[in-house]
Model the fold of this input.
Amino acid sequence: MLLEVRDLHAGIEGKEILKGLNLQINKGEVHAIMGPNGSGKSTLAKVIAGHPNYEVLKGEIIYKGKNLLEMEPDERAREGIFMAFQYPVEIPGVSNSQFLRLAYNEKMKHLGCEELDPIEFNDLLKEKAKLVQMDADFLKRSVNEGFSGGEKKRNEILQMAVLEPRLAILDETDSGLDIDALRIVADGVNKLRTSENAIILVTHYQRLLNYIEPDFVHVLADGRIVKSGDKKLALELEEKGYDWVKAAA
Amino acid sequence: MAKGIEILTNREYKYGFVTPIETETIPKGLSEETIRLISKKKDEPEWMLEFRLKAYRQWLKMKEPRWGNFEYPKIDFQDITYYAAPKQKPKRNSLDEVDPELLKTFEKLGIPLSEQRMLANVAVDAVFDSVSVATTFKEKLKKIGVIFTPISEAIREYPDLVRKYLGSVVPVNDNFYAALNSAVFSDGSFVYVPKGVRCPMELSTYFRINTQESGQFERTLIIAEEGAYVAYNEGCTAPQFDTNQLHAAVVELIALDDAEIKYSTVQNWYAGDENGVGGIYNFVTKRGACRGKNSKISWTQVESGSAITWKYPSVILQGDNSIGEFYSVALTNNRQVADTGTKMIHIGKNTKSTIISKGIAAGYSNNSYRGLVKILPKAENARNYTQCDSMLIGDKCKANTFPYIEVMNNTAKVEHEATTSRISEEQLFYLQQRGLKQEDAVSLIINGFCKEVFRELPMEYAVEAQKLLGLKLEGSVG
Done:
């Protein structure tokens, strides 16, 4: 098992948002987490990634057999956890390629592998950029600065491609994307799907799941998973709305 | 709730060692006698002594300035040693005759001076306390007419040049500390680039204070004749003492028609400990005169050391179409103070100036930008662009901006932009989520913030400066 969340209670600023969440993920699987606004989807993503503003009140998260909650966010990242942000952050004056090389080399160092110099890394980066149809020009620009919404999301997937995570959490990556951008992002993610890694898709809408097919769909309501199923569940939700599950739960 | 961004300590200052060397000092205190003694030690001509005495008499009438945005204890000028020099043979013909202990010191500071190890394309003048101990590539430069020599030697060997320009940009009575410097300055660099010569290598001076009770009063004079070009860099460090030391320098630059001078500083004097004990008072007057048409003077500074940094590298834009630039990064941590900026004085027609200032404050520090843009009545079509950005780390530091704009010609265009920001937790989390350690994340954000300034620095200096900021802030976020 890659990730196991047991009876997780967590919140922000003293407010409990997750109220006993359980989830098990094996490598090679894609899990979609769906649910209405405020159900705790993003909180789950941020707690797994280790956002300092979120507090774990109870429960545990085991990742690759280790207690994840004891690890700093950067350690988690180097251990292969990646979160594509819903609102990617701008870092003025720092070029995309400079930033990605630092991140890549941190991971290489951690794995005991050789670090890449700027020239070697550029070759790798250009390869990866094709995956999300990004031109070289983007790589020289400051991280996310002046990027459109769609460009920011593509940049997230580019980072994922470079860092090759074991567990990728895509936090509402589909929000604010037009249909073309959505397709590019989804294509990128599909190409990165292997039998060795797992993906959590946090999303509000079924739309994304037409492009990235999940193995499992979980419905989150009021801080708990109230229903799990396969991809058909997403379609059912689309049709009947979230109230249907909440009522059934 | 958020862990918050708090200041802990910064890393140990790695240049804080003292060189065990026999030093010749004169008794503490300042009088006409002291000045005569310094002048005699330097074997100076009469006119130089007169220059000094004139400055001293002016200084006596002046008051210590107190208008800075900070407090500092009263300085006892009679408790300072005005001349300290390592004992060595008076005349050095080659580097072999320089005390090995001194060569070792500069080697340790990353400035190898011996022929075999010299930096390949940079000529270095090494100043230790009050004297220049070695200058590399001097002869090679001389062949193309470039003079790069300690100012004490220039006074003896090129008296006409020195006499013509010394004090012509910063008059002896310009301000309290400039007057003091003019009276007691001991060494520094002199650069003369003749007409039409593009200096083929970068010139640089490395200033080192070693003696506890001494002040350093260096004097630098750079002259670029018609069509000449020179890039000059300076670096500074000092040992770690728990008393404050005064560093009051004067730098004068003169650019004639079509000449260009690019002056870069990476200042890392000892800053005092985390409680503000010790450190250098860096009270400096730096000014350049664009005397000729189409001339250009560009100041780039990275100020990261000193207990107090108080300086405004300025440009007097006299020649038509002349250009003045000021690029600055001032980083303060713990109890450090920086009150720095520039003055751009537009006199000629079509003169242009650019000011880019980046202030970073951490700990309990106090970081101010103070700048004057003055457009005189005859300066038709003058342009200025000023951008002042401040970044705060933690909530106990202060950043201020004091822009002064005086426009006396209505064809002028003056733009001023200012921002204040903090490193946001979202930025830190984002970078950490990609595997960067928190310190590296802070360092990356800061370096991005300073990019417009760093790209003006010579390559080696830019690399050095980036590392320096990283070290200075190490552990300042937690």
